[in-house]
């Protein structure tokens, strides 16, 4: 049996706050308290929870953008936080991130071509390869090669998030960590972006770790859902089971917060 693509083992992260009194030790915040899960290649795991539950801290640790207080993150068997700097740089080909804000995550001073090719440039790829691959991934997300010379302000929010997804795709990663990828978009655009992510998974075999506060979003895209509360996974399972038979009170509270669709209006 093949090892999972991603293995998270006992992940913990605590932060030290400024000292309030000279005679007392500085207070600590436990953002994660021993989180463990696996994701199989080609599958999708949703991490759901309210603001402050530890979701974004988890995403940063999985991306090796922060150091854990304890625990391991293994991608393709490699402990990302134990890798030397150069090996970690090479490992980043296999893991990319899509951020929440399609307005803040794209540098307004850079062309779309430079933004999308940035991960390849960081790997030292030749410029002509960067340009060709950038054109290819833009086409994959429904944009045109002629958009490479444009700037972010020329695109809508949904188009900007497609550009962010293209940037994540360019190194042909095995895993994409998507941190609230549709929460900043209009509801009418959210389904388009989620459907695009589904199509790309089917085409390229991408594995997703999807961070969201919205159970309806993870139900749309994910094979498995882990519910995070105060830095701990309190419940995990397929979304169909969680929606039908949630066992933890916190999961049930999240489900009750999902708005019911409005019934169609009667003809006047």
Question: If you had to describe this structure to a student in words, what would you say it looks like?
Answer:
With 268 residues, the protein is an alpha/beta fold. The protein has two domains: 174 residues, 3-Layer(aba) Sandwich (Rossmann fold), CATH 3.40.50.300; 69 residues. The chain is 35% helix and 24% strand. The protein is built from nine helices and ten strands. Strands 6-7-8-3-9-10 form a six-stranded mixed β-sheet, sandwiched between helices. The protein has a four-stranded antiparallel β-sheet with strand order 2-1-4-5, with helices on one face. It is globular, with a radius of gyration of 20 Å.
Low-confidence stretches: 261-268
Number of domains: 2
State the total count of DSSP E strands. Answer: 10
**What's the average pLDDT?**
89
Please give the count of helices.
9
How large a portion of the residues is in β-strands, by DSSP E?
15-25%
- According to CATH, what is the class of the largest domain? Alpha Beta
Distance between the termini: 61 Å
Helix fraction bin? 25-40%
Organism: Ramlibacter tataouinensis
Protein name: Peptide ABC transporter ATP-binding protein
GO molecular function, one term: ATP hydrolysis activity
Family: Belongs to the ABC transporter superfamily.
Q: Keywords for this structure?
A:
268 residues, alpha/beta, Rossmann fold, 2 domains, six-stranded mixed sheet, four-stranded antiparallel sheet, 9 helices, 10 strands, disordered C terminus, ATP binding, Oligopep_ABC_C
């Amino acid at each position: 049996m093949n090892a999972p693509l991603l293995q998270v083992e006992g992940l913990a992260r605590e932060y030290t706050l400024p000292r309030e009194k000279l005679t007392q030790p500085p207070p600590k915040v436990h953002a994660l308290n021993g989180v463990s899960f696996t994701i199989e290649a080609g599958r999708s795991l949703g991490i759901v929870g309210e603001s402050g539950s530890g979701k974004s801290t988890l995403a940063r640790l999985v991306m090796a953008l922060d150091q854990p207080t304890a625990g391991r993150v293994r991608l393709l068997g490699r402990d990302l936080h134990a890798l030397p700097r150069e090996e970690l740089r090479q490992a980043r080909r296999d893991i990319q991130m899509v951020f929440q804000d399609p307005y803040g995550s794209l540098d307004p001073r850079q062309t779309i071509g430079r933004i999308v090719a940035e991960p390849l440039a960081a790997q030292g790829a030749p410029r002509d390869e960067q340009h060709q691959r950038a054109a290819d991934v833009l086409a994959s997300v429904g944009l045109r090669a002629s958009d490479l010379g444009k700037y972010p302000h020329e695109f809508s929010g949904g188009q900007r998030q497609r550009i962010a997804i293209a940037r994540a795709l360019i190194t042909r990663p095995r895993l994409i960590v998507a941190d609230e990828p549709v929460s900043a978009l209009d509801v009418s655009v959210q389904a388009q972006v989620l459907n695009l992510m589904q199509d790309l998974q089917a085409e390229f075999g991408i594995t997703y770790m999807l961070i969201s506060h919205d159970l309806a979003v993870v139900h749309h895209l994910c094979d498995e859902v882990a519910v995070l509360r105060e830095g701990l996974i309190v419940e995990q399972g397929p979304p169909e089971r969680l929606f039908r038979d949630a066992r933890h009170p916190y999961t049930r509270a999240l489900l009750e917060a999902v708005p019911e669709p409005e019934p169609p209006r009667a003809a006047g």
